Hints:
By secondary structure, chain A is of the alpha+beta class.
Amino acid sequence: MTAHAKTLRARRIAIAAVALAGFAAPAAEAKDLTIGVSAEASSIDPHFHALTPNIQVRWNTFESLVGQDATQKVQPALAEKWEAIDDTSWRFHLRKDVKFSNGTPFTARDVIYSVCRIPLVKDSPSPFTVYTKPIVDMKAEDDTTLLIKTVSPDPLLPVELAQVGIVSASALGTTSPITFGREGCEGLGTVPQAPEFNKPEIAIGTGPYKLVSYTRGDRIILERNDAYWGGKPQWDKVIIRPVTSDAPRVAALLAGDVDLIENPPSQDLDRIKKGGFKVVSGLSNRLIYLHMDQEGDAPSLTSPTGKNPFLDPKVRAAISKAINRKGIVERIMGGVAQAAGELLPYPMFGTLNREPETYDPEGAKKLMVEAGYPEGFEVVLGTPNDRYVNDEKIAQAVAQMLARIGIKVKVEAATASQFFSKRNKQEYPFYLSGWSAATGDTSSPLVTLVATFDKANGRGTTNAGRYSNPKMDALVIEAMRTIDDAKRAELLKQAQTVVLDDHGILPLHFEVTSWAFKPEFDYTPRTDQYTFAFEVKSAGSAPAK
Amino acid sequence: MLVYMIRRFGQSLFAIAAMALLVFVGVYAIGNPVDILISPEATELDREAQIIRLGLDKPLWEQFLLYVVNVARGDLGNSFVYGTPALTLILQRLPATLELALVALAISVFLGVPLGVIAGLRPDTAAGRSIMAGSILGFSLPNFWQGMMLILIFAVILGWLPAGGRGTTADVLGLQLSIFTRDGLAHLILPAINLALFKLSLVIRLARAATREVALQDYVKFARAKGLSERRIVLVHILKTIMIPITTVLGLELASMIAFGIVTETVFSWPGMGKLLIDSIELLDRPVIVAYLMLTVFMIVMINLVVDVLYAVLDPRINLKDVTT
């Protein structure tokens, strides 16, 4: 063969090879989703740790009877509807024809098993028993009807059930009938513990994605559950990668390693947008607030009158008026926050749509004089420095604003672990903190932050200043017993009005949560700040249900 | 030799015990882990139940005694956060860190020693001077900044390498190693370079200084006079001598790379032990912190023991029996 012919033949073969490669090209395009999250889930077990990173992973695989929409309002999930039969009894109608990812049917027995398992989970750093404690009895009237009795009227039962992930009783090793008992259920067999859930054959749920593998520190891989009752899930594979450091997480998005990231730092948002990515932001349920000591003997508080100045409502009002909330939002938070006038953003359940306190330093000075503190006083302001967005900077700004009305504030910032320990031991007379209402309604901050500290009844757990207002307590206690939604909302609104007028707590602003992702995706912001893989959609498709 | 080994083991046990005591007291002094771990929704009663469960209600000396008794039985405690045994948690992440540290070590030795020797043999040439200038950058630029720059240049701008994480692993002798897969190597390169840069600069400067000193020695001049090839002089005579100080430094540095590669592991989201340590410190997961640091002390002591034995191999003048410390 001549050299020319050889070259020609080689060229023809090459062209043919390229053409064939074109034909052999991808048969079906795999649509995978890779998410970069800011904190790692400590276990796949939905009952192990009540913590945001665990909760947002488990919803992909394990659903609950009740779900919460983007503003945390309850919506049907595995239960189609429910009603309160009387003050302490509820009937839940479960969805029919739902199957677990291994093909077995979902019935009321699985719900009873899940609630029974929660107190038996060993070594849980933050147990889910806080949500199942009110339940005193559960009976399966048939496979899809469940009767639940609570120990006292509990209007928040649906919200509490939204935190309980439903696992498959048979996949976890029991085939006998299950009877609920408050002190211990029967028929559970040996309950597998959290480390077992790293195995796909144990981690069986009804959710749109099922577990493939969990490599601690590296990634969680989920794949589509074709038997999902809610229609075909959008992604073939979901890969959840924890990238705890902010800058590398942004870098991972910019480099194209991940499709979506949560919590991008606010100073990088412009860079991300310029890179052609999309950013969505939404109000969260996290309130940043100030709390003052109300017990009389405040440590590190020097007062010229010898009395605790925070006990005087005029002083508290003065402090509130002296803070320029809008200024903090614009200058310190870069606009990525919203000034707060109450404990949750409107229109969440129990909110007033109340305006933030008007910035009035002159009025504040007048109030200080009226209260008998023309020269002000000295106080320490405690704050974490690595827990909330710009926490220490906000505290410094507050200190400077209060200096103008004569209050000399010394800011003591500490790392989160130290701050919370000291705060809970009541070592700060004045502190800055944040609160996220997991229930999605104002009863959560009212009961935990400002209700009178009552260990036996579980109130005022985070009320380190020990603020106590019997009028507000009565309203809140009544609200927690009122099943009727409209009446309860009214009581909560009244309770909020009482405590805000009295300045028992000083709301500063609500944090805004951001998500950044490639332009071909879309995500609806959630007030609970969760990043749910199953709620990530392709851009331009129908919004999440 | 045997007496020497036994004496070293005894000393290491003492160091480990001292470390455990220090960490125990230190972590206890920082704060209460329950405040971080427990859900904010939990009641005061729940909180107290958790404190009792973790054994934090007992006085400190009693907690420490209980811990010592358990360690003697081989139980280093369960993580407060994960519930699994602390030692298991750490050992699970050990292969990833070892992989990274050993690749970084290889880079610093196989790149650093030749470069240092070249700089030492030809100190006044352009090559020699630029090597030294480069080494200054290597140890003065902050570690995390170097890491971020590597990601920015190679992952974001050029897009050649991934921005972080570990690649696909292959099962080798029961361990999950990523060095044998192509994807794994791609993920390994940048963090290994980042981890190696500081040691590389150190090795270059050490090798250069040692080479310059050794090159002037009588036996090297004698070897040249005898007519040995330059290659043999460098590779056999000079190299063996300079390896002694380099081995000492590398021994210490290897231990610190394994135990404290925290910055690199955080910047590159490498699922190793260093990251576990920093996360545990933030969450006040005391059992993991204590177990980790005890393991670190043990490792450092063992590595130094190996280094000392290597001395005897490299330098026949050294007789271990005579070494008292």
